[in-house]
Amino acid sequence: MLYQVKFPKIENLKQTNLVRYYVKDGQKVVEGQALAEIDAGIATFDVPCEKEGIVKQRPIPEGAPIHAGDIIVVLVISAPGDKPVSRFEYKTIGVSDTGFFGAEGIDPTALKGSLNILGAEGWELVTGIDPRYRKAEGADVVLVFKREMRG
User: Fold this and answer.
1) End-to-end alpha-carbon separation of the chain, Å?
2) Which residue spans of the chain are classified as CATH 2.40.50.100?
3) How far is CA 130 from CA 50, 77, 79, 93, 126, in A?
4) Residue 98 phi/psi, 5° resolution?
5) Are 35 and 46 in contact (CB under 8 A)?
6) How far apart are CA 2 and CA 79, in angstroms?
7) I want to staple 68 with a disulfide (CB 3.0 to 4.6 A). Which of 4, 9, 136, 146 is the partner?
8) Domain range 2-76, CATH architecture
9) Residue 27: which of 84, 109, 106, 89 has the closest Cα?
10) What is the C-alpha to C-alpha distance for residues 20 and 46, in angstroms, rounded to an integer?
């Protein structure tokens, strides 16, 4: 189940910025743990975690303005009866072989064998293109996979 940690409404607070996150995507967090630092102009303060879970998303970039009700962090939490929250590991694979590309972009049938192997190992495709890794990997496209951590 997803849970949104939102920036609270604070009286007489006009301009605030999200300075930095203390947590990363995929990180396990506990209730009361500091998630992010907020600059309110006259002081800085931390936003505490409201529930135990795993960080799924941090939608506001560091340094950006933040307002009451903005979602600071999205958590994956356990609902009553759910299995415990798991941590995830991520894998990136650079694709530069032109055999994987058709007229419309990536040809899924050309990747099917590789994807089936990864699927059998518990990997799930998260995104097909992550431009942050393109230059570093020397690839035309980078596939990003995730799976629950074992043990």
Assistant:
1) 22
2) 2-76
3) 31, 26, 31, 10, 10
4) -65, -15
5) yes
6) 9
7) 9
8) Beta Barrel (2.40)
9) 89
10) 10
